[in-house]
Amino acid sequence: MRMIAKRLICLLLTLVLISTVTACGILDSRLASNQTDYEVSDVDAGPSVAVEGEKIINIGVTDSFTDINPFVIDQTEIVKYAVGLFFLPLVELDENMNFQDMIADSITTEDNIHFIVHIDDNATWSDGKPVTAYDVEYSVLRYASPIVGNTMLSLYVFEGTDDETGFVEAGASSMDGLDVLDEKTIQFTTKQPMGLTTFQNSYGRYLYIMPKHIIEKIDEDELTSDTWFNKPDVISGPYFLTSYVPGNYISYAANADYWKGAPKIDKLNIKIVEGSQIYSELQSGRIDMTEPTMTTIPQEEYESIERLKNVRATYCLPITNQSVFIQTANLPDERVRQALLYGIDRQQLVDRLLKGHGEVTEGFLSSASPYYDASVQPVEYDPQKAQELLEVAGWDSTRVLRFYVNSGDSTFLNGVQSIVEQWAQIGINAEVIPTDLATLMQSVAGTTDYDLMAVQYVYAPIDPYTDVQWLLSGDESWTGYYDEEIAEVLGRTQLLNDAKEIGACYSVIDRKMQQDVPMFSAYVISAMSVVNNRVIGAEPRVYGLFNDIQNWDVAE
Q: Fewer Cβ atoms within 10 A, N terminus or C terminus of the chain?
C-alpha cells in the first residue's frame, strides 16, 4: 500500500551526510561568477563582529550550502536551521522529539486526510502585521508554482496538485488541498491517508511561511532570484539575515520585535569550517558551539576536545546511521547478503572507531526512536555461520564486490578496511572504491553499477516512513528491493497515530531486514556536540537546539 508516491527527495530532508566540500576556497571560486547575487558590502565585511556592549555567538559547522532563498533551497539540515531563524516553520521537534509549536499552535486530524492547522494568535511579522492562514496558503501556492519549480517539498501528496510534479497552475490563487477556514485556521487535504506524525515531520517542519503582503508584490518568475530574499526585512523569526556567502558564513542580527520575546544575543554567525579546524576554533574561542547534525567532528579529535577547559562536550542521541546499502539486483541471493552481515564484527567497530560512542542496531531504527524495539537483537559476528551460508548459496569466491564508500568519511574509511578483511576470511572479496559524495549521489546511487554503498543517513527517529518507503521501493531505489509485506506494514503506519502500534509495524520491518538484508547498519553514531562555557541556555542536542534561541545569553 503506497500512501505517498516514491520520494527520492526525502533523502534531502533527512540525510545527514559527512561534509565532503568544506574546502571553502573551492566553493567560493565556483560561486564567484554569481557574487553579484549578494550584497557586495556585506560580503566584503565578512561575518558579523560585536561592537562594544553587544553580545555575539559563533556557531561552527562543517556542512555547506549554496542558497537560503526558501523557494530554491535544498532541505539539508544547515539550510533548514539557517532559514528557520528568520522564517519560522509551522512546528519543530524539541529535544525529546515532541513537536513544539512555532508558527502554529496546533495541528490536528480526525481521519489522516484532513489536517487542521491553527496559527498562534500571537504570531506577528516584524512589521507588526499578524501572521495569518492567508500567509500559509499563499506560501504553499508559490512553492507549488511550476514557474518556481520547487520539488523539494513533494507537494503532490495534496489535493489539487499534479500527481507527478506537485505543481498547480502558474499564478494559481487557490488549490483543492488548501482551505482557509478563518484568518488563523487552514485545512490541508491529502490525496491518501497520511499519519499525523508524517504530516508534522515532513511538512510542518519544512514549510517556511512567508509574508503574503510582501512576496505578493514580487512577480512569480522573480521569486527564485529577487534580492529581497538575500536580506528580508519582514520576518517571523528571532533573527534578521544580514549577510551571507555560500560555503563561508551566514550572519544575523536580533529581531527586537520577535513575538516570542526579543533575543538576548545581538548578533549570530554560522561559520563554515573544516572538520580539522574544529578543535583549534573551539580552543581559541573563535567558535562558541557546534551542532551535531551540521558539524562533523573527527573522531580522533574527541578526546582532545574533551580536555579543553573553556567548553563542555556532550555525546548526543545515536541517530546518525552508518548504513550499507546492497544492490539486490546484483546480489539476489539473500543467503549471500546474510553472510555479509554475519561476517562483520560490528561491536568491534563501535569500540575501536567510535571509542564506544555509538551502538549496534538492526534495520532502520536506533534506540533514539520512540518506535525502537530492543527485542530485535542485532545479528552477532559469526564467521562460521557466514561461511555455511555462502557454501549453501554456491558463492563464487573469485568474484570481487564493488564497495563504494564516501571518501569524505574518514572514520568509516578507516573501519571499512577491517570489514573487507573480515569478509576475505569468509570467502568474500570486496574492492573499496572511495568516491566523493556528489558523485555517489549523482552517478552511483540508484544504479546497478555498485554492489554495496556506504553513506551516513539519519532516519528521522520520530518518522522514518518516507525514507524506508523510498529505500525499499524497488528497481529505482538504492537497494532495488521490494517486498509486499513491508509495503503493507508501512502503509499501515499512515493510518495510525498511536506510538506503540506504529512501533509494532517498524519491528516487523527491522526483523525483515535481518532476514532479507537489502541494507544493514554498520553502526549508529552518538555524535559529539560542544558549547563554550560562556554560553547560557544553549545545551547541545540533536533536535530543538534553536527553538528558543531568544533565551540564549552569554556570561558577562
A: C
